[in-house]
Amino acid sequence: MDAPDGAFLKTAIGKKMTFMFLHCPECSRMFQFNPVAWTAQACEAVAPKAARGAKKSARQLEKLLARENVALPQAYLDHLRNGKSRPDVAIFRDEDPFTLYSLDELCKDVDVDGTRYPAVRQLAGFAQALAQAAGAGSKQAAPFSPAELAACLAIGEENTRILFIDSRDNDALWIYHLDGGDVEKTRFTLTSLIGPGVS
């Protein structure tokens, strides 16, 4: 266990939290952990390395998203299609930038608690885990209900944080923290992200 996870575990025990994620530095797996009951359930937040297949065309990727009932905002889809999208964005000063998913990366499978989701839909898995661990009335991802969080679209990541589009307005950008299930609003919107002048 690395130092940040160790410190967070001590805090979680003190606060009697019943849900958190820990990362194994040896196998790169992530575990859903209950520090009160001292039980863990294996899950992954990154797709396992698989054999490379033929690269899919943008049209094939869009069909895959449609089959998964993923409706990206049209302006963002156009932005991804034009091939000029930035690979990362600095959400906070003095912190590592978030890596933004390409159209191909949005469609890659991610394993959350043993269920596979397209990366763009991975919050559905975490919302389900939150609801199971803390009940449907969980305030852990407030102001999002588990159903609202499940409808949000992930568009990037940084270590244990996922950048996502607020499903309620399809514009505000938020961060989901894997190590606790909390959310944090950013100063960015999808409109400002795809427009000029983002550093």
Automatic annotation (TrEMBL):
Source superkingdom: Bacteria
The name this protein goes by in its record: Uncharacterized protein
Natural source organism: Janthinobacterium svalbardensis
